[in-house]
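Quick one: structure for this chain?
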Amino acid sequence: MTLKLPQVLIDEMIAHSREDLPNECCGIIGRAADGALTLWRATNDQASPWRFNIPPQQLLHLYNAIEDVDGDLLVIYHSHVASEARPSPTDLNIARLHKGATEWPYWVLVSLADEPPSVRAWRIDDGDDPDTVTASEIELAIATGDADRRRLEMIEVDGRPRVQETSL
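Got it. Here's what it folds into:
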């Protein structure tokens, strides 16, 4: 199994990881029905070097944007600031909460413990036990082409949180 991503998206995930130090970064890559890819830099509302969480308003925005192009959620990405680019027990617990999804997205992890940063792709799927999931590393290959890159930020409008999306 191989995940093919344009170099521009790998570079964007690394840049996002570095910019969010000392905390983990997180984001999503969606694939439109025509194959076009979009990377969204999300906000880590945990603001933590050990955990990430995309705010619910941003997740809803992302799901709607992907649905608008008859697409699918291709990748969940995040960084590890001091450990290898391998799903942690916390990552596997997050994945376990979503067990039962028809098609699980790939996970891409960026490790800033290495220089240059290590970027690895994973498939997290049902485990043998009903309460477990398993992670299997897959090949991450460079694809030709470009992709759209966007940033999501939380802003306040009339005292209510809103998602603002800007192009990178």
